[in-house]
């Protein structure tokens, strides 16, 4: 009986691992921008995007970051 090894695909070549890696890289960029205050400067007008950012969901319930644009 010969020992036949299955050629398994390395983990870094799998599709889900690439998506997970991209997710972690984006999260690190968000954290870096938050620490260094490189956040985007949006106009504080009555725009639709600012109304979403200032809604109760993103100000009280879903606050992972201190910069509201990153919580969306």
How does this structure look, described?
The protein is mainly alpha-helical and 72 residues long. The protein has two domains: 9-38; 40-72, no CATH class. It has helices at residues 15-36, 48-53, 56-61, 68-71. The chain is elongated. Keywords: Membrane, Transmembrane, Transmembrane helix. The chain crosses the membrane at residues 16-39.
Q: What secondary-structure arrangement, pairings included, does this model have?
A:
Layout (H helix, E strand, L loop, with lengths): L14 H22 L11 H6 L2 H6 L6 H4 L1
Please summarize the sheet with the most strands: none
Counted up, domains total: 2
Put simply, the count of helices is 4
Mean pLDDT: 74
> What is the rounded distance between the termini?
58 Å
Helix content class: 40-55%
From the spread of the alpha carbons, the general shape counts as elongated
Structural class by secondary-structure content:
mainly alpha
- Give the amount of beta strand, in percent: under 5%
- Strand tally, please? 0
Low-pLDDT segments, ≥5 res: none
- Alpha carbon gyration radius: 20 Å
SSE string: HHHH
Pfam family, one: YfzA
Keywords: Membrane, Transmembrane, Transmembrane helix
Transmembrane segments: 16-39
């Amino acid at each position: 009986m010969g020992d036949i090894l299955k050629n398994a695909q390395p983990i870094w070549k799998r599709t889900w691992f690439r998506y997970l890696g991209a997710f972690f890289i984006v999260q690190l960029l968000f954290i870096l921008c938050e620490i260094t205050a490189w956040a985007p400067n949006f106009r504080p007008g009555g725009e639709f995007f600012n109304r979403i950012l200032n809604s109760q969901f993103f100000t009280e319930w879903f606050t992972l970051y201190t910069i509201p644009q990153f919580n969306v």
